[in-house]
Amino acid sequence: YHEEKKVLNGMLPKSQVTDTLAKEGPSSPSYDWFQTDSLVTVVIYTKQKDINLDSVIVDHLDDSFRAETIIKDYSYLIHIGLSHEVQEDFSVRVVENVGKIEIVLKKKENASWKCLGHPLENHNSFIPKKDTGLYYRKCQLISKENVTHDTKLFCLMLPPSTHLQVPIGQHVYFKLTITGTELVKPYTPVSDSLLSEFKEQVLPNNKYIYFLIKIYSAGLFTPELDHLQIGDFVSVSNPEGNLKISKFQELEDLFLLAAGTGFTPMVKILNYALTNIPSLRKVKLMFFNKTEDDIIWRSQLEKLAFKDKRFDVEFVLSAPTSEWDGKQGYISPALLSEFLKRSIDKSKVLICICGPTPFTEQGIRLLHDLTFSKYEIHSFTA
Ligand SMILES: Cc1cc2nc3c(=O)[nH]c(=O)nc-3n(C[C@H](O)[C@H](O)[C@H](O)COP(=O)(O)OP(=O)(O)OC[C@H]3O[C@@H](n4cnc5c(N)ncnc54)[C@H](O)[C@@H]3O)c2cc1C
């Protein structure tokens, strides 16, 4: 029992801790556990201050308990076969100023546990995030709503045995088995609407994740996704992506350049920036589409611009009807130089760009020509 407890308390023999990590990466986290009659609390000491509820992803399935904590670009995994049964739901708390994460499990029976359990694969490992595989859990389709002629708003529900919040600017992978083959594609969560208050702050344990997805009738994946019935399941991975939220600190001008479904990362960015960045003076979205019918959430964008004077939206169409009196064409030096006007001289600026690869590449080239530095540009790419 002592041996087992020792390993499970995070005190690994020295040989298992990589030397390079100690020198280059953040210092290695550790964990512990304690219990009351009815609860078991697993505590993760991250030894970092910038930890929040996005930082930890918890899943438990039958007796296997998995908690992955993201610390800078590293992943710390707790993976244990629990010694006793626990209830499906649990709670997660973060004590930000000391970087402590507490996961409170409810015992099925009020018995005293002699040990937490036995280590499973990669338990207590601390490795670069890029070297970890993707972990999937099955999410249920709750609703599906038409947004444009080919784009739908999907609502998925996480299982009660999962805690997962997708950070702003990150995406997840969907996995479906199509005619015997597993297929995986990335999608970017959005808020359920542009006009609701910023949900992540209000409801930290939100179980619903929303996606705006364009269905390609000749596509490989999206027709299958579209065929799912309400109540069906799709596997959803842990989040990935490299937008650093610190880029928004002290920000004064935020410019968003989106084409088609490249609009999806902008949704949470917009909600986040307008709610959480007091220094923000101006947010402008330039939204490129083929026709008016392709514009996702047009009226919501127009309402938001009306409601919040800091926000402006400009639609640019490449194949408009003769009635269209707005901007036309593709991303160009003329469009950008007129659009990217700072609200004050030398303001702190961030430009986010997302769309098909040629759009994004061309956009980045033009932004560099307009002398924006790479620190002022964030591009979303595959
Ligand atoms: C990080 C990231 C985030 C993303 N987030 C979202 C999101 O939030 N919402 C969203 O809708 N999409 C998103 N995407 C795109 C998404 O991952 C898929 O690429 C998209 O859903 C298309 O999937 P599909 O398999 O149905 O279509 P595909 O089979 O990939 O086909 C797409 C279209 O291209 C055509 N096509 C396919 N192959 C060829 C070819 N060889 N020559 C010519 N045409 C061809 C098809 O006919 C179809 O019209 C994201 C992509 C990335 C990289």
Automatic annotation (TrEMBL):
Domain CS: start-end pairs: 26-117
InterPro entries: CBR-like (IPR001834), Cbr1-like_FAD-bd_dom (IPR008333), CS_dom (IPR007052), FAD-bd_FR_type (IPR017927), FNR_nucleotide-bd (IPR039261), HSP20-like_chaperone (IPR008978), OxRdtase_FAD/NAD-bd (IPR001433), p23_NCB5OR (IPR037908)
Segment forming the signal sequence: none
Superkingdom classification of source: Eukaryota
Record bears the keyword Endoplasmic reticulum: yes
Protein's cellular compartments: Endoplasmic reticulum
PROSITE patterns: CS, FAD_FR
UniProt keywords, alphabetically: Endoplasmic reticulum, FAD, Flavoprotein, Oxidoreductase
Positions of the FAD-binding FR-type domain: 134-246
Keyword Endoplasmic reticulum listed: yes
Stored Gene3D superfamilies: 2.60.40.790, Nucleotide-binding domain of ferredoxin-NADP reductase (FNR) module, Translation factors
Cofactor requirement: FAD
Protein name: Cytochrome b5 reductase 4
Gene coding for it: LOC103596473
